[in-house]
Amino acid sequence: MYGQIWLALLAPVIFMPIVYLIGRKIGKRVSWVAFVPLMLSFLFFLSLIPEVSHGPLGEYFYWLPEIRFGLSVDGLSLPIVLTVAALSAIIVVYSNPYMEHSIHEQYHRENNKAHATYYALYLAYATSMMGVVLSTNLFEFYLFFELMIIPSWALINIYGTGDREKIALMYLLWSIVGAVIFLTGALTAYATTHSFEISDLVLLQGNPRATFIVVMMLLGLSVKMATFGLHVWLPYAHAEAPTPISALLSPAMIGLAAYAMVRLLVPIHVLENLTMLTLIWGLVTIIYGGMMVMAQTDIKRLLAYSSISQMGYIFIGLTSTTTLGISGSMLQYISHGLGKAALFLTVGAIMHQTSFRDIRSLGGLAARMPLSAIVFIIGCLNIAGVPPTVGFMSKLLIFTGVFEHGLSASSTELLIALIAIISTALTIGYTFWTVRRIFFGPLPDHLKDVKEAPLQMTIPMLVLCLLSIVLGIYPKPILDPLLQVVEQLIHV
Amino acid sequence: MINNLLFVMVLLTILPAPIVYLLGRKIGKSVGYLVAAILFCATFVYGLLIPVVEHESILEEFIWTLAPVRLTFGFLADGLSVPILFAFIFVFAFVALFSIPYMERRLQSGDIPETNAKYATFYTFFLLYAGSVVGSMLSTNLIEFYLFFECALVFSWLLVFMYGYGDRVKISYQYFIWTNVGGGSLLMGILAASWVVGGFDIAALTHIGESPMAFWIGIAIILGLLVKIGGLGLHGWMPNTYAESPAPVSAVLGATSVLLSTYSLARLMPPFKEVLSGVSGWFMLWALLTILYAGAMALVQKDTKRLVAYLSMSQMNYCVLGVFTYVGYGFLGAISYSISHGLAIALLFLVAGALQYRTGTRDMEKLGGLAEKLPIVVIACLIGFLTIGGVPPAVGFKSKFILLSGAFERGFASSSLELAVAILAGSLATVITLAYEFRTIWRIFYGKLPESLKGIKEIPINMAIALLSLSALSIVFGIWPSLFTNAIEVFIQHIFH
Questions:
Q1: Residues 6 or more apart from A96 whose CB is under 8 A from it?
Q2: Do A64 and B411 touch (CB under 8 A)?
Q3: Given A364, A446, B93, B115, which residue has the most CB atoms within 10 angstroms?
Q4: Rounded distance, CA A260 to CA A486, Å?
Q5: Where are the domains of chain A?
Q6: pTM for this structure?
Q7: Are A317 and A329 in contact (CB under 8 A)?
Q8: What residues of chain A lie within 8 A of the CB of B427, using their CB?
Q9: Dmax of chain A from CA atoms?
Q10: How far apart are CA A303 and CA A357, in angstroms?
């Protein structure tokens, strides 16, 4: 059926009014209505896995004369969109008990409207993220890219914690600054090729303006990705957003910038000339993020910094411009997505059960919340790249790619590759130290009566872990088409 | 097609004026519903005309005076005028609806006696104002255009003069004098142009480029129109007038400024492309400076309506920027941006009006935390801001994107001046816009609700309908832009090929 990809993409938005109206009547239970379109989209994209190994699928229509909007599903975009859809579907279930608690704390009463708005915005956010992944046109890409900002701004602004309105504004402004820098590059590309089609970006190869375009787009996307120096907004936004949204912001959204770099910038072949700079930049991000994690006492801020650090890995992987490096960073998107979401959800569960978020008042929770402890540990294994999780595979690919590049380039670059590999120890260090601080050691008195989180929270968390282990053991259906497409992108 | 449809349409918005007045003296404010109904009919017809003009323009001509000064008197509906008119009348219709509770409050506030005659005059002038702008956008002839243009000025001046706040007499004279000076410059340009081409027909301007005077004629017309659209240095009247008019009047003034000026620029400027090629980059720069200056001013305002006034001035000049790129996308962007801006600016003035109606203040420092109390207003305000900021899914996104694509195309095709303008307009100006917009939302709708506003209620139904309808149109056009851009595209094809 033609139009089915569009339908799958837009299903959440089509459900928005329904969810809002029903939500005003039934309150928090509307999360199950919101779950329907997200799950349908996920299942639809899942069913495309066998098909994409034969080649990309696309659907196009003319939005304006000469401007063609399309959605394309291939070996590269499918795994990413699947991750986004899966995370959105899983987290919406988790939102139900979490948001009930947090809305109750905020308003001190039942507030059906707050639930209705939350799930409506949530659906818009999900669609915009999937739209970014599937776009075939720069105009369309930018549309979804900006669209992402608005619901996430509103979600932080209305449902966040702490100084939420100020932080939401800061998040919005940083995002817009990134978006307009990107826009400068995109419009320059249009003025050069007279086409908005992403597939026409290859025409820029060898053009004198190509470097400018790539640098602008790279900078713009790096704001979203929170590479060192452009990361200021991230710890605030991710720490103060409502936890289910942090679990979408952090792993799903910021990584989309990396996907966009692969999709848009790799075929122009300018990144090769910048590798030295980008490798150093990525390395600084890894180490800075890792160091900052150690210094945090707030468990959500801690995870936020670890996201910065992990983005550094994705960044060096893709800027190594080798097939393995790029595929590795895309796989890292998936593993970080699953792993970091699991961590955020666990932290949310801890906040929900204990109402503490300061790591110094936590400890010994493994005995009280065993399922959460297991999820958190698997999440950490995933982030640290330890088998059997998919994180192992992704880190391995990234390092192979970076190393391969280092061997063929100068000795400085080889050195950078080595340092990057060694700094994985940092990740393992901070993740397991955190596990120890939260879950082991003596149980403080005020946590004696803590119980395990409700099933609606623990099941989504366990599903995330399950996915990351299944993929870790059997990555083939995703990895093969991915490698194929990346190979093509590099050699166009 | 009905014979003389356009003539009938112009009469539809002018002839009922005496009836509105007489009826208004009897029934007072309810006559606003009659005005709204008339304007809704007109909206409906222009809406139906949009798909028609995608295929053919409609031209009607009458002979007004015979030789020696032969003046034809005509109406032309094409891909440029119909979409703009649709947006324009749509705004007027809903503003009329909004104004019914608003003007009641205005007239009860003390400084003007509340009599039926005051309502009658208000709605009569309101209708005539709409009619004059319609006439000027349908004109085929420069004199006719200028006549309607001046009539619009007089009626809008009367509305400010009679119903404004604060020092309304002084402010309305300031408005009148500034815009008349602009009008004078426009008239000089028009007269010189007709002398050069030997006739008043707008269509005859096509060959004006061959004349040595064309450059100065072009400049005179542009300066005249830039007063209307608030180009930096020519904007002296704008913040005061917008801030001190009653909200419905500010809304229609804002919509007229942007729609009529952009319409006129798009209609009159194409023949001057060659002669102005040396300076059009400087006009782009002027527009950019205005955008940045007014944007910076908006950041420091405390009064809601002054904020919207500066915001409007800032964003309108994107249209000027788009027109002077002289490339297809620039024009398409400018025209569609004028439509999106016309909708949004009216929406925002109405939001400011609704806030004033409910809270009695325009001072942002006395507002806060209203999101809970006034959900419809917060949604309308957000959509207005998204439209103006060029953020999807509002129509502003698409228009601004197209406009900037045109600016970049021009920038790379000509000198570094145009390129710098394009880049700054795309980046710095956009960021400033979103900064003041979201800061305003924060200040008005979030934060702490002052004690005095605890008992506040949602706005009356008339106002809610007006706000939601304008918001809805912005979203509908945003998602499905070809509803109106196909027609504009036809016009663009016609002038650039």
A1: A28, A29, A31, A32, A456
A2: no
A3: B93
A4: 13
A5: 272-492
A6: 0.89
A7: yes
A8: 177, 180-181, 183-184
A9: 68
A10: 12
- Judged by CB atoms closer than 8 Å, whether chains meet at B482 and A183 is answered as no
B162 part of contact set with chain A, CB < 8 Å: no
Query: How far apart are alpha carbons A150 and B441 in whole angstroms?
Result: 13
Are residues A331 and A393 in contact, defined by beta-carbon separation less than 8 angstroms? Answer: yes
Report the pLDDT value the prediction gives residue B345, as an integer from 0 to 100.
94
| Tokens read off for A187 | 């419009």
Length of chain B equals: 497
Tell the residue number behind the tokens 């064309």, with chain if given: B214
Q: Which of A387-396, A481-490, B31-40, B431-440 has the highest mean pLDDT?
A: B31-40
* Cβ–Cβ under 8 Å, residues B337 and B400: yes
Q: Outline where B360-481 has alpha helix (H).
A: 375-389, 395-413, 416-426, 428-445, 461-479
Region at A161 (left for phi over 0; alpha for psi -120 to 50; beta for the rest): beta
Name the phi and psi angles at B201, rounded to 5: -65, 135
- Identify the residue among B402, B421, B423 best suited for mutation to test binding to A, counting A beta carbons within 10 A and taking the highest: B423
B427 — contact with chain A (CB < 8 Å)? yes
Enter the tokens of residue A268.
């122009």
The amino acid at A489: L
The letter for the amino acid at A54 is H
Structural domain including B64 reads: 5-496
ipTM for the predicted complex comes to 0.85
Torsion of CA A356, A359, A361, A367, to 10 degrees: 90
Q: Output the six-digit token pair for A208.
A: 């004198």
B472 in contact with chain A, both atoms CB, cutoff 8 A: no
Min Cα separation B75/chain A (Å): 28
Ranges in chain B, pLDDT < 50: none
Domain total of chain B: 1
- Whether the CB of B485 is below 8 Å from some CB of chain A: the reply is yes
Q: Whole-angstrom Cα distance, residue B383 to residue B377?
A: 10
Alpha-carbon distances of A447 from A170, A373, A433, B225, rounded to whole Å = 35, 15, 20, 71
